[in-house]
Amino acid sequence: QLEAVIFDLDGVITDTAELHYQAWQALADELGIPFSRAKNERLKGVSRKESLDIVLEDSPLPWTDAERLALAEKKNASYRQQLEQLSPADVLPGILELLDSLAQRGIACGLASASLNAPLILQRLGIASRFQAIADPAALQKGKPDAEIFLTAAELLGVPPRNCIGIEDAAAGIAAIKAAGMQAVGVGSPEQLGAADLLLTSTTELTVEKLLALFGDSGQ
Ligand code: BG6
Ligand code: MG
């Protein structure tokens, strides 16, 4: 039985996946490193530090840890500047309605985002109070595709993983949800998210009925 829905943030609740991409592209351009949307797919769901390591794979230079730290901070500063524009209008279509329907049915909501900026983003979107549990990525041993972040959110909610659904826009995220023993809902393309139990092309299609149907429950 469905007891909790655990959301990814960037690219599911709001389109910050695009802002992340723009900030990485700007950094890569500045450093003269080739970067593309195709490569950016590998950064989705991945921590800031690991994302930078992937961006720097195409650089011939041997970046030191201190230099890498400075570059990650630089990317984050330009990303956070973009976040200042964020408002409740930036919650993706269908998400507020879904949060409402889940609350009405007493289904808990959790957050499993790799972003250290997640609390700020939820606040700017005006939906922080909708989540009963937020897994802190800074406290984890392993990032997505490891199951840890989804398992942590479920534990904070006090719900067994088999009674949870995870919603993701990244391949690493779908892998993490499946490894956690949860039902995975992907929002995106079959090329990236083929492993999802339910694949939707946009958040407008996310309804509580579709989520309940994954548990063989029509909701009637
Ligand atoms: C994830 C994004 O949610 O958060 C990644 O999908 C990002 O692209 C990661 O790198 C870390 O985000 P932040 O805000 O801590 O740099
Ligand atoms: Mg995401």
TrEMBL record:
Substrate binds at residues 8-10, 24, 43-48, 51, 75, 113-117, 144. The record marks S113, K144 as: Important for catalytic activity and assists the phosphoryl transfer reaction to Asp8 by balancing charge and orienting the reacting groups. Mg(2+) binds at D8, D10, E168, D169. The active site is at D8 (nucleophile), D10 (proton donor/acceptor). Belongs to the HAD-like hydrolase superfamily. CbbY/CbbZ/Gph/YieH family. This is Alpha,alpha-trehalose phosphorylase.
